[in-house]
Amino acid sequence: MKQYELVIGLEVHCQLATRTKLFCGCGTDGFGQAPNSRICPLCTAQPGVLPVLNRRAVELAFQAALALECRLAEQSIFARKNYFYPDLPKAYQISQYDQPFSRHGRLEITVNGTVKTIGITRIHMEEDAGKLVHELAGSKLDGSLVDLNRAGVPLIEIVSEPDIRSSEEAYAYLTALKEVIQFTGASRCDMEKGEMRCDANVSVRPVGQKEFGTRTETKNLNSFKNVKDAIEFERDRQIALIEAGGVIVQETRLWDAALQAGRSMRTKEDAHDYRYFPDPDLVPLVADEAWVAALKAGLSELPKAKRARFMGELGLSSYDADVLTGDKALSEYFEKAVAAAPAGSAKTVSNLLTTEMLGRMNAEGKTAAQSPVAAEHLGALARLIAGGTLSSKGAKDVFARMWATGKDPRALVEELGLSQVSDDKQVMEWVRQALAANPKAAADLKGGKEAAIGSIVGGVMKLSKGKANPALVNKLIKEAVQA
Ligand SMILES: [Zn+2]
After folding, report:
1. How close is the Cα of 60 to the center of ligand 1, in Å?
2. What is the C-alpha end-to-end distance of the chain, expressed in Å?
């Protein structure tokens, strides 16, 4: 059998995080709400309505494009994409066609330690369609119902170059893309709510062949795992078909996650099937230079820059920096906590976050923003450790109580009586008692047997009920023995 190479291009739709739809004032919060509770004459295509472009949607779309290093067009055109489907009341979708607002971007991905750049062909704005409902409360309907809550919700479509060569690279690309888009705030990318969806264009070719093979497009993949599975299925199907002497047909396919199989939906349309033309109701979108400069200045720090800063300025390991920048809410939480902690304790904060908080968050399905422990309180906990009030064991106990109660660690230290004793006089008193109670160890220590210190420390801890500051105990034992 010949060796084959995969060629993948991804088209990703992200819902822009606006309050209202792209061309009317209806809310974008219709997910999970009563059907058709977020509609008006415009997004249901009543006669005589005119669209008004949502300024905020344009700002967010431009910021996403800037973050993906795209070139912005001075002028872009909204076009009508004509097709008939019952979830599309106008029988056309307003999109951008031959003059999108941005092109030629790029995104870096890392797979198995190797960095690769994936080209971004273009990003354009468009409106979402509605949704057909085929069953209600678990029972199949005789006909279909239409819910237009989603009709007119603003989207960007991000089209990659066919630079992706494996399902792992596709997965890494989507992960990196989601990270960048979330950091800009352009989209929340909540896949469960349909705020990020992916179409995968897949073809295979014999290794060494220059021309691409015929590609198929698998539509509406709603999780990264589905994208990976669908690509691998399509790779195997195409190779088997070619090896058996068959021919790949250019077509649109659907992925059935339950069956772990794809199936043909329709032969692929070409652009001319949609009869694109400029929407006469909308003027060209002109990007004012000063306005774009302001958007660029307002762009929040991106994951790559943040990661470098966490390692360089705060001294975190690359692993910790990766974990903390993998999620926008988590990175913001971390920075807030560091701001509340004493200088130089970023590593302590990072350790508390990764060892104490992340596991609890994952177990309870919470984001950092939903943590019962306030970021300022985590910073205060790091301060208690740095100041010697709490041992690391004590900090663990206090954190568990903070998670359960949401209380300030300073109050909990009092409540739990966990405050570490760092008073020289009190600790010295315990040291004297421990030495007196264990004359053999005391003599050994005096005679130079360093290991004997362990049992004296143990004695002090017992006398202090574990509250003596260990560093101070060690120091004072040595002083007492040398005296
Ligand atoms: Zn509306």
Report:
1. 20
2. 83
Q: How confident is the model at residue 33 (pLDDT cuts 50, 70, 90)?
A: very high
Q: How confident is the model at residue 268 (pLDDT cuts 50, 70, 90)?
A: low
* 37 Cα: distance to centroid of ligand 1 (angstroms): 10
pLDDT per position as a tens digit, 311-322: 999 999 988 998
The Cα–Cα gap between 391 and 473 comes to 13
CA distance 86 to 133: 11
Distance 87 CA to ligand 1 centre (A): 14
Cα of 40 to ligand 1 centre, how many Å? 4
Q: How far is the CA of 20 from the centre of ligand 1 (A)?
A: 9
**For the residues 410-423, what does the mean pLDDT come to?**
79
Query: How far is the centre of ligand 1, averaged over its atoms, from the C-alpha of 126 (Å)?
Result: 15
In the numeric block, the tokens 């971007």 are attached to: 105
385 vs 413: CA distance, rounded Å: 11
Structure tokens at 200: 């995968």
Residue 257: predicted pLDDT: 84
Mean pLDDT of 440-461: 88
User: pLDDT tens digits, residue range 202-243?
Assistant: 999 999 999 999 999 998 898 999 999 999 999 999 999 999
Kindly report the three-state secondary structure assignment for every residue of 29-48: CCCCCCCCCCCCCCCCCCCC
Measure 213 CA to ligand 1 centroid, in angstroms: 43
212 close to 205: Cβ distance less than 8 angstroms: yes
> Is 252 within 8 Å of 267 (Cβ atoms)?
yes
The CA distance from 394 to 400, in Å, is 10
Q: Is pLDDT at 483 greater than 80 in this prediction?
A: no
Measured CA angle at 216 (ends 173, 224), to 5 deg:
30
Mean pLDDT over all residues of the chain?
91
**Distance (Å, whole) CA 66 – CA 140:** 45
| b/e map 397-433, b = 16+ CB within 10 Å | ebbebbbeeebebbebbeeeebebbeeeeebbebbee
**pTM score, two decimals?**
0.79
**How far away, in angstroms, is 153 Cα from ligand 1 center?**
9
